[in-house]
Design a protein that fits this description.
Number of helices: 1
Helix content: under 10%
Strand order of the largest sheet: 1-2-3-4-5
Largest sheet: 5 strands, antiparallel
Number of strands: 5
Length: 96
């Protein structure tokens, strides 16, 4: 995926590999505007959660350095019926 020249984005290109049988993402490579790899995101441990197949483990690894971020979902709920203004600025300030 390459953004249009006028698009306000920070990535120059994103490459993804997706499983054909269920369209689950396997990995994504993010490149900066100079074409240099910036980070890799890998997806694994696919499981049914909230009635949907999802990657339960996501690892975000910068191209340089040893630090990484690992997100593991133990449980997910979808379509929970949030009010439209739930993510509004007023509510975000009130929840601090």
């Amino acid at each position: 995926m390459t953004p249009r020249p006028e698009a306000p984005v920070i990535w120059g290109r994103i490459e993804q590999q997706i499983r054909k049988r269920d369209r689950m993402p396997l990995w994504a490579h993010y490149y900066d505007e100079d074409g240099t790899l910036s980070r890799t995101i890998t997806f694994s441990d696919f499981a049914m959660m909230g009635g949907r197949m999802v990657p339960a483990r996501t690892v975000i690894q910068p191209a340089e350095g040893e630090e990484r971020t690992v997100v593991i979902y133990l449980e997910l709920e979808f379509d929970v019926g949030l009010e439209k203004d739930f993510f509004g600025l007023r509510n975000l300030r009130a929840r601090r």
